[in-house]
Amino acid sequence: MPISGETAEAGGAAARAAQLREVSNYYRWLDRWVRWHRIVRRYSGYDTMTVHRLMDDPVTGENGPLVVHDLILEGLSLPARPRILDAGCGYGGTVFDLFPKIGGNWLGRTISPIQIARARKEAKRRELEGCVRFELRSYDEPFTERFDLAIAIESMVHSANPAATVANIAGALKPGGIFVLVDDMPIENFPLALECDLEIVREMWRCPVMPTERGWRAAFEAAGLEIEHSRDLSKLIYHRPVEEMNALIARDTKRASWLRWTGLSSG
């Protein structure tokens, strides 16, 4: 039996809503993880209000969750008092770190009630409410304003339709606006022998698509964006010792299998 356009559209909306619930639940778990992790590691990101990957500063060698912000600022040219979007803002750590450096008017979007509550509380504490706003909305929802800069750090990997997500944000940029994407991307021609491991990563991180760099490039170009610069940051990321990584892989593989068996893998 043929599927009508209305039925397909309703099915798509249901799938998007389910993905939002999945990611929101993931962020709820991640909040507990970063709170606990601050006890056992130098950085968990909780105190800096970030969940960014730890990176080594290529100049000073200093390691931390805010290094990525300095990398973003390299060569960045913005107008006075720029309007800036943080797509998938989390606790607002990027906003709070970069606002003193570049000023402007900021909008952060997250789908996590836990994250937005903390972000709004911090904005009020810093008396930034006139310049910084946080919305409990998806970056896939239409925007009513235009931005000079859009930043998405380790958030768009959760998109169920990366091309549509990029197009939506690109459509909110002013002429000459800049879109900065920092995210995890599988290598091209990913080894078939490791495909099962990659699938576990997608499931655990709630990443239904997880495009490669080539996939993101195609999405940017389809949205009419010109790619000015691309940089592989892998060598700057803190890498755990092999023994620790093997233990974590074994643990997460076992946990993923157990969650599937209990039916809680999507919780």
CATH topology grouping of the largest domain: Rossmann fold
Query: Regions with pLDDT < 50 over 5+ consecutive residues?
Result: none
Average pLDDT, to the nearest integer? Answer: 89
* Main sheet makeup: 5 strands, parallel
Order of helices and strands: HEEHEHEHEEHEHHH
| Shape assignment | globular
| CATH level-1 class of the largest domain | Alpha Beta
The CATH superfamily of the largest domain turns out to be: Vaccinia Virus protein VP39
**Residue share in helices?**
40-55%
Helical region count?
8
CATH architecture of the largest domain: 3-Layer(aba) Sandwich
Q: What proportion of the residues form beta strands (DSSP E)?
A: 5-15%
Radius of gyration: 19 Å
Number of strand elements: 7
Description of the molecule:
This protein is an alpha/beta fold and 267 residues long. It is built from eight helices and seven strands. It folds into two domains: 232 residues, Vaccinia Virus protein VP39 (Rossmann fold, 3-Layer(aba) Sandwich); 28 residues. Helix content is 44%, strand content 14%. α4 links the parallel β4 and β5. The longest helix is centred in the N-terminal third of the chain and has 36 residues. The model has no long low-confidence stretch (mean pLDDT 89).
